[in-house]
Amino acid sequence: MVSQRQKLARKRYKEANPEQFPKPEPTPPKDPNKKKKSKFKRKKADIKEPRISNKSNYRKHPLRVPGMKPGESCFICKAQDHIAKHCPEKAQWEKNKICLLCRRRGHSLKNCFNKIDETIDKKLCYNCGETGHSLAKCPRPLQDGGTKFASCFICNERGHLSKNCPQNTHGIYPKGGCCKICGGVTHLAKDCPNKSNRDSDASVGVGKGATENERPRGQVTKFVSGDELDDDFMIDDTSSGNKDKSSESKGGPASDFKDTNANSASGMAVVDECKLKFLELKAKRNYRFIIFKIEGQEVVVEKLGSPEESYDDFTASLPADECRYAVFDFDFITVENCQKSKIFFIAWSPDSSKVRMKMVYASSKDRFKRELDGIQVELQATDPSEMSFDIIKARAL
């Protein structure tokens, strides 16, 4: 650093020798009319030669097609380089359209020749016959089912819709089928009027070997959340103060909720053999793995693996198209050269299994796992690659 004494010495030397320190010349003012030169210069070859656009070889990416989102395609020909508006097969597709008024092919309701009333293009209330609002927003009470001014597309008569037309045997199922609850063809299963009756019958135990007359009268059954909102539900009687009587229906699964071994989510009971075999695996190390299976309304032991069997023998014992519960005792050596073991609980649910089986096993998993005290690692697998030996080893460490 320069000290104060050195600064004073330089100042005195500058005053004594001014000829050695000439004053700098002042800079001239900038000319406002002078253009600023660019630092980047173009080559002469680029200026003379015009740019050649090669549009013939240029092809747009399918995700950059205007009016099309990424992953979508033309719904007529399934191509990804254009939308349905510009499809070359649109004319042929238009010929197969069915008019909703005259039921003929080749045109739509908008271009129908038999369309005389202009109210077809507007919202027409089937209940009061006025335009401007639909049947769902009609302020007047429903008369004749709310279809007094509706016109049928099949028989061209007023007073009913096509789904209630006597000439239409398929209803709202043009390719055949019916409601899964009552067998009707005028509504879907989600809108079935008997849906609430079926749910109440299932909750009080009306099923195999039981009739509707055997169901207790004067009860309202509702589901109250238990320990877990996903799969734990219990039946609660709101009409009477005695809750024990509501669970004593004939032949129903409501009595299973009193059992301490019962799964309150799906009515699955756990056999005592499952607990005993698991305790032997945990304490005595008599088995390498245990595979459990749901039979009827209870969880039973399907197969026991000896201590000499390996992990490959365990994976080969699991069926390829059915769900199972399994417990595997995995021995490993840590980085510190210590031998340890961990008990894995594996929920095997392959994609090829039935949907009902997947739902039953998924709803009973948590409550069944609570019965097996001592599980350290849980694994959910839908494919053999999701429960490979490397994944088991990584989860253990």
From TrEMBL:
Residues 33-45 have a biased composition (Basic residues). GO terms for cellular component: actin cytoskeleton. Pfam families: Cofilin_ADF, zf-CCHC. Residues 21-30 have a biased composition (Pro residues). CDD domains: ADF_cofilin_like (cd11286). Residues 265-397 form the ADF-H domain. SUPFAM superfamilies: Actin depolymerizing proteins, Retrovirus zinc finger-like domains. Residues 1-63, 195-260 are annotated as: Disordered. Keywords: Actin-binding, Metal-binding, Repeat, Zinc, Zinc-finger. It comes from the Eukaryota. One of its GO terms (biological process) is actin filament depolymerization. GO terms for molecular function: actin binding; nucleic acid binding; zinc ion binding. Residues 125-140, 152-167 form the CCHC-type domain. The keyword Repeat applies. Belongs to the actin-binding proteins ADF family. PANTHER family: CCHC-TYPE DOMAIN-CONTAINING PROTEIN, OS04G0555800 PROTEIN. This is Uncharacterized protein. It comes from Nyssa sinensis.
